[in-house]
Design a protein that fits this description.
By secondary structure, chain A is an all-beta fold. Chain A contains no helices and 8 strands. Chain B has helices at residues 3-19, 24-35, and strands at 40-42, 45-48, 52-53, 59-65, 74-81, 88-94, 98-107, 113-121, 126-135. Classes of the chains: A mainly beta, B alpha+beta. Strand 5 of chain A pairs antiparallel with strand 6 (88-94) of chain B.
Amino acid sequence: MARTLINVKKTLTRGEAFEIRLLIAHPMESGQRRDSNGQVIARDIINRFSCTYNDMLVLEATLFPAISANPYLSFWAVATETGSIVMTWTDDHGTVQTERVEVTVSA
Amino acid sequence: MNRRAFLLSGAALVAVSVEARATPAEVARLIAALTEGARVVEGGMKLDLPLLVENGNVVAMSITVDDPPPGQHVESLHVFAEANPLPEVLHVRFGPAAARPRIATRIRLATSQSVIALAKLSDGSFRRDSVDLLVTLAACLD
């Protein structure tokens, strides 16, 4: 499991746009580099990412090796109801990781 | 190793390092496949990248699309780098819970080149912005 930092404002007012920022500890090995023996180092990147808010899609992304190691993503969602923000990503090994953040929305 | 073999191995190395690069033509093909002949308007969005990149391994990039006309929304964003080993950088699709057509991330750039971003609106048209930048320390190959 990759270590992650997720930064979301936890208490929101309805209709407010809020930023979701996350940083995932992952090597994002591009598959372009060679080791000291000249062998290509196998590609290992997070290739799919998605974020939902109360099961509604905020965004989904396809990532390529051009995304830096320890990928950082920032995007915006609009506050509707108290609930959870779920972020899921998949890497080249097929490992799926899910992180969840609860937010409280007041009228 | 005699001189001939040495020169040949050098030539092979050059060939390897030149081989893996996208080209502007390849990016143009990818963009044509994406837009499928739809209208592409220059501007209406901002691709924010530094003009002089000191470290190509970590380049802060943000994309902000100006608010589309009422009743429309931004469906997706697409980023291409013309001289990276692989031309595609990122595809993003926004869902109904997204607030603003805006994202930020960090990317790798192999060399000085143009980076192109496209935004697809819900009416099927596209917006486009590009940045020509200089990279002093390249990413990807070492």
